[in-house]
Amino acid sequence: MKKIIIYGFLLSFLFSCKKSFLEVTPEDQLSSDNFYKTSSDFNTAVVAAYSGLQSYPSTEAFPLSEYRSDNLYVKTYTTGSIEQFQINKFQDNSTSSLQASAWADMYSGIERCNEVVSRIGTANFSETLKKQYDAECRFIRGFYYFNLVQYFGDLPVVDHPITAKEALTIPRTKVADVYTFIENDLNIAAVNLPAVYSSSADLGRVTSWAAKAVLAKVYLTQGKFSQAQSTLNDIITSGGYRLMNTIDSAFSVNTSGGINNEMNKEILFAIRYQKSTAGLGHSPWFTTTDTTSVSDINPTLKSSYSSTDARLRLIRYTKNGSTFYINKYFDGSPDASTKKSGSDFIVLRYADVLLMYSECLNETGTLSNSLTDPSMALYWLNLVRQRSNKTAPIGIDQCSSKDAVRRLIVQERKLEFTLEGIRWFDLKRTGLASEMILANSGSATGFTNPVTSVPDYRLIYPVPQPEIEKINNPQILDQNQGYY
Amino acid sequence: MNLYFLFFHWKGRNLTDLCRIMKLTALLMLIICLQVRAAGFSQTITLHEKDVPLAKVFNQIEQQSGYTFAFTATALRKTKNVSLSVTNETLVNVLAICFKDQSLEYTIIDKTIIVRPAKEVDQHLDHIAPSVILSLTVKGKVSDENGKPLADATIALKGSSIGTSTDVEGKFSINIPDNSSKILVFSYVGRENKEIKISSVTLLDVRLLPLNIQQEQVVVVGYGTVKKGDVTTSVARVSGEEIKNAPVVNFDQALAGRMAGVQVLQNSGKPNAPADIRVRGTGSITAGIDPLYVVDGVPYDRGSVALEIVDANDIESIEVLKDASSAAIYGSRGANGVVIITTKSGKSGKMKVDLNAFYGIQDVAKKIPMLDAYQYAAFSKDGHDNAYLGEYSPSNPNNAITGLPPSVNDPNSVRPNSWDKTPPELFPYLQGTPGLTNTNWQDQIFRTAPMYKASLAMSGGNDNSRYYVAGNVLSQDGIIINSDYKRYGARLKYSAKSGKVKLDVNVTPSYSIENRVNSDDSYNNEGIVQAALASCPIWPVYNPDGSFNYQGNGYWRLGTDYQHNEVINPVAEAMLIKNNIIHANVDGAIALGYEIFKNLDFKTSGSVNYNQYYNEYYRPSTLPNIGSKYALAVDPYYVPSNPLAKSSSTYFLDWVWENTLTYKKTFNNSHHLNILGGFTSQREKSKAFSVSTTGATNDLLPNIAGGTSAVGKPPYSVNEWTLMSYLSRVQYDYKSKYLLSAAIRADGSSRFGSNNKWGYFPSISAGWKISSEEFMKDITWISSLKLKASYGISGNFKIGNYQQTALLSNNYNADFGLNEALNQGTAPTQFANPDLTWEKTAMTNLGIEAYFLNDRIGIETEIYNGKTYDLLLNLPVPTITGFGTATTNIGSVNNRGLEASLIINNPIGKLVWRSRSNISVNINKVKNLGANNTPIITTAGGVASAYFKTEVGQPIGNIYGLKYDGIFKDQKSLDNYPHFSTSQIGDFKFVDVDGDGVLDVTKDRTIIGNYIPKFTYSFVNDFIYKGFDLSIAFQGVYGNKILNLSRRYIANIEGNVNNMTLALDRYRNNDEPGNGLINRANRKSTGNNSTISSYHVEDGSYLRLQNITLGYNVASATLSKIKVQKIRIYVSGQNLWTLTKYSGYNPEVNLYNSNQLTPGVDYGSYPLSKTLSFGINASF
Known about the structure:
Chain A has helices at about 1-15, 40-55, 55-65, 80-90, 95-120, 125-150, 165, 175-190, 210-220, 225-240, 245-250, 300, 350-365, 375-390, 400-415, 425-430, 435-440, 465-470, and strands at about 30, 70-75, 155, 170-175, 265-270, 295, 315-320, 325, 345-350. By secondary structure, chain A is mainly alpha-helical. In chain A, the strands form four sheets. A two-stranded antiparallel ribbon of chain A has the order 2-6. Chain B is mostly beta strands. Chain B is built from 18 helices and 57 strands. In chain B, strand 25 (about 485-500) and strand 26 (about 500-515) form a beta hairpin. Strand 1 of chain A pairs antiparallel with strand 36 (about 805-810) of chain B.
């Protein structure tokens, strides 16, 4: 008896060493312990990465790009719009919540991509699918970093899921190296993604052409014109994309009710929305009211369009109920109860490919005033321009210099891509930011509260102050020069 | 035949007779049960014999006295015949005659007179069967602490039915059979029992000390016991005896004010509502703050279960481990204190039957004085008038219709806005028409409610096996209509011993049925109490046809919207909504002990706790929804609702397995060593789901079967945690003079992150009993003096399950394809947190215990300083992680305090006066809230301006709002002080806290109170005189502040709902400024009067007569006739009187008691009852 009990006692200690007793997995919610295994698991994880993009227009494109550029103009501010005002007037500082939200939003999207990219290698299912999922997430991750680096400069590059502790140890990577990282992601994506998905149910997932188009833009942004040019050429010659006949049909703008032209042949990549499903519709990204509006389309932008330009209508408003919807993103019938729209946000369309190509040709080629030579910049410029504005092509008398052509292209891009989150990056890329902003929003305009100066340091945003405080180590995360 | 031969046949004699005999002979007394048995024997012996054999005389005596002779044939062989002639002579004297000149001696054991040869005892030892015969006689005296003899003190031989009592001189004599326990138990009413082990024939001088202060009292400290005098940590103890009087449902309520440093907060009077027990302040901000409950060694993390399954009558003692040193033996669960409950066990001896029962009548302890219908009508009109007058200003002086300045006499027809108008139903009241409907809504929802409770326990056993079987039934009607609670419980305990093996079984099944009403909420959410207060007194409860009247629910908003708030008839809400909870519980524990070596014991115990809750809710169609759109202009004034039914079920399954080794040894009679080692593991799992249906067209099936469609996705949750621990403790003392104890526990928990799976909780404590030193021997006025000090670390693992796990959600969708089909996406929602760990409390405790004048006066004082650190806070993290916040162990809170008790034991002749007074002071201070120490600002009750702020340097949960400073009494005071632009004369004056000359609802917020009291105190006095006992217990709290959100309505002075009578003191005009504290009536209140400010904060200090009980013990002489050992009848009053300035029902209210950040909110809650009860305690 004595021995039995003593042995029993000792046995109990052995039992106690069983480690799994202290590992309890939740049964009513998913945990990473029982996830990231099957192809279905990874598919839903990739879907979540796409899902994250749905905040891109409202959190990044509009507040940080459109308000910063000369597309929008904020007359004055109310309590709720002071930060938009400050961004618009180049008076923002590091405590702005808009930059903080964008920073957090993009890194949150990157986190979802990292979960897939870092885990999929060891998963056990079809290699083709694994490559595709990995590539989709690398595309999205590359896209986020491309935005981040243009907004904030040097960045902490996070390429795998990290803990809060690890976050304190990741220093900023120089801009050039961030671009290398982005190029790598996008190159892998361009190689591994399908050109077209075999199932029409996958329409909207990123393709290799989309990856190439973004990659081309990354090259272009770095001034790697020849690489950009050859990538763009590839898209133009074999991508199967085309300009839609009218700008309206490119945007599925509902003119008479009922056309659904989303994911048309002009679109390389769009963030998709659907108004009838809860959580998948979007509120107007930019709106105004008749009289009391404090922010509006910059009057100089409106006056840049010729009255015959079909694109002018897209930056005007349609009133529906008590809400003003900007025509570019108005699908004609917002959901009756939620007031949400289902129009997609086009990230990259063929017109951009053509205008980028035009830019490359101008930068690398010879100056020419030929409007018919496809190796000349003006050919592509007018291809895009004349779709919407049938008046005589421009450029013959204006291409006195590469710089003059560059300005023509930038101007055309402005008219073409208004409210698509593109203008600010164009201004930065071409070095025209200060000049254009001061011309269109500055004191010369005679508007209330003009922009007085656009110092160089303001070409990137301040790092959100809360992030600096949380890291609390200037060796790891310091403030961008010029900001306090 | 060399056999001793015994006969045990009992015969009747008179009890009183026997008593006299015993007193005269100073020989022997019977224990109580035998006294009962003996009833009917004659008192004396009458014998007339001449020269007869002794055996014959013995036979005669047996027949008359009921005593039995035991002797061997050889013993009587050499005896002489005897002659005697006695009439009504005592047994002893008769025996004296019989044994005169005989070579015999005798002893009386029990009712057996053992006869043996006088000298040859030793030689015969070999032949004596080791059964009953050999004995030693113990004589002595029992006295009180001053040496005064105690008459009628009981002396019993432990583990047998042998016993006696003292005579008037306190003297006794008792024979102890050789094979018995040799432990004498001395007892006397109102005094501590004393056990003395007898090793040889002795003359004893026994002093019985008054109850409570006995240093030999055993205190349960978790995985063991220790003598009270040897305790070196902070442990409070209440015996079951002390709380038996309180007519309460659960024992926790009876603990209020009994222990220093242990706050028992009864924040709701709901039937079966558990009290909150807070040990030495609040140590956590986001984790649980309830103590750990341990019932008979089994830890219960859900205290409500422990409270429900333990019948107060079954309680032997309750100990509360207060400091981290004592609680460290419970490791990661000790930081909020540990409440250890020990239930009674069977004792060796005949079956003892205990019956405890009471019947009580409950009434609401307080009603809030509200305006009656006539006062309300005048008040409401005043509100409408002022709204009307307020619309005109110097730039807009005249009424557009009349063209004249507005006047309170203007009829509704000329008033521009609907809210300027007085509802016409009030006109008769304004005219003073007598006999109109004047409903006192509080009287309608409260009732006089009976309750009863009965417990029956049977216990007994012998040296080898014991049992305690008890059952109880409880029925309590709530003081709010349609609320009640019934419970049936049992406790079955059995223990057996065979050689070195010991077995203990403890099974506790219970079952309860509770009908709830929604009492604790604002009336907008159908809170009945607040609805009764807010309801307009001019509406009747019932329509003439007997149906409920719903005019209060928006009748005055139809057509002309007078803007009186919609309130559903609270009586209808209480009566029509069904909310029933059934709770079945089974607890079972088996423990096996084994003595491996002489001083080494092994114990393994397994216990299982299974709880099943089933809740059914039904809201019938006949009850309208709240709001004017559910009102009608004609009787029955309501639109039926869509009925809602809900069923939910939860189960908990919890098992614990504990193994301990105990080594106990005394060296050289002076070194006492006690070593404990153990291993335990525990797992709890619960599952819950709930289904709601709606759409039934009638109320014929008042449950989920009646509905036509389910409401939403049925909630479902699973929770599970595991805990594995090693524990060890060493206790050492030298001659009970120098005491040392050290313990360590290691806990591994599923709740902790992988990098911190195991936590270690060490503790050490030491004590010095100065009074045991030689140099103190002469200082007789100090009876005991002890210094103690302890330090330990305990933990709080109530940080929630799965906090360390990376969790994902399926809610991140996107759409693809031509048809834009939904694709489900899954993404992480919560970090993996491998560093997550328990919260820790390190506490130092210093104490002094001193008793004087033979323990007549005692003082126990302790000071402590506890730092709780690694508090779990949800803090911002670098967002490059992909997440905004993560729970991090970072904060810290300090609790410092002082506890003092004064104990008085003062027997004055036959009157025993015992008194215990406690005072506890605890200072709570937040020390760290993370890297930036960002204050945590939250709101309570969904009220936007009801801010609470927790910040460094302040106690947890400060109320944070505007500081109210009376009202602006005149234009001058309005002009001379910063005010809101809308403020008018008669509106609140708020303090310009930041002094910038501008009042701002955000910037001028400041700390306006905290629920944590400055100190708490109590005094309990017990008096025993002859058969009577009187107990009076007061307890009080000083300096706690309550955020009385109910005042948003019932003291808003707007006239849209009923108000407290304080509205009568309102500002009316310059000539009638009221008391200067209550603002002007105004339906369109101006000047931010309704913003939460210190106007809504009240002092919750109180002094309460917690319990008063008068009992009477029926005299034993009477009892013996009905064969009952003890009967005590009592009358008891619980919560009869409270002295407080608090205007609400209960100054202990804490509506959101699970959220430490918003403590002390009153927003409608179930009031406390006062109970008058009659009870009986009987033993057979």
